[in-house]
Design brief:
The longest helix is centred in the N-terminal third of the chain and has 30 residues, at about 1-30. The chain has a two-stranded antiparallel sheet with strand order 1-4. A two-stranded antiparallel sheet has the order 2-3. The protein has helices at about 1-30, 45-65, 70-95, 115-140, 145-175, 185-190, and strands at about 95, 105-110, 110-115, 195. The protein starts with a helix and ends with a strand. It has one domain. It has six helices and four strands. A hairpin with a 3-residue loop joins strand 2 (about 105-110) and strand 3 (about 110-115). The radius of gyration is 18 Å and the shape is globular. It is mostly helical and about 200 residues long.
């Protein structure tokens, strides 16, 4: 049980960081500038990628014997549901949204689209077949209690980060005052440039 916790903790953090830089460099390639896509107050973390990595790690052993095309379709459906629920949850909780696919064909309320679903399916396949084995291989060299303590510290810091982020965004979007001079409208807009109010 401890080994599973340690693995999932590292996987969530690493995938969140990879997702942040993937989004940034994709923007650099397609739009000419590195766009900031963090979803927490502190650190280069895009949490939806961390959640996606955990889901892929959970699902892949169950479908690894299926044909590659079937794996891709299943992953695409899973990632589409995750993206839809994330967008919907953000709207419900904060009355904001961070992406809009309304301009793409075959979209559902701008939250998801066929094009993005296909891309997420391909990305999930690459993650399951290339990144995940490399990650498992790298973690196989970690032994002893030190990395377990590090995983526990990472988990605690990430939970604090998520809680503070949730609180800050809620108060910001509901026109309340956050109890810290560190956070104001300008800083929140700089930190979450893709967050749009409904």
């Amino acid at each position: 049980m401890v080994i599973i916790f340690v693995f999932n903790c590292y996987l969530f953090v690493v995938a969140s960081v990879l997702g942040y830089y993937l989004e940034g460099f994709w923007s650099l390639l397609t739009r000419g500038f590195f766009e900031h896509h963090a979803s927490t107050l502190w650190g280069p973390f895009c949490l939806i990628y961390g959640v996606a990595a955990l889901l892929i790690n959970w699902l892949y052993p169950k479908i690894k014997d299926r044909p590659l095309i079937i794996q891709g379709i299943i992953f695409a459906l899973l990632m589409t549901v995750l993206e839809y629920l994330t967008h919907w949850g953000q709207e419900i909780l904060f009355h904001t949204y961070s992406w809009d696919y309304s301009y793409q064909p075959f979209n559902i309320q701008g939250r998801v689209s066929l094009i993005m679903s296909c891309l997420w399916g391909l990305l999930a396949l690459f993650f399951a077949h290339v990144i995940l084995p490399l990650f498992q291989y790298g973690l196989s060299f970690l032994h002893g209690p030190l990395h377990r303590w590090l995983a526990a510290i990472l988990a605690i810091l990430m939970l604090i980060n998520i809680f503070c982020t949730f609180t800050a965004i809620y108060l910001w979007t509901h026109q309340e005052t956050y109890p810290s001079s560190y956070i104001d409208d300008q800083k929140m807009q700089l930190r979450f440039p893709n967050m749009h109010f409904e």
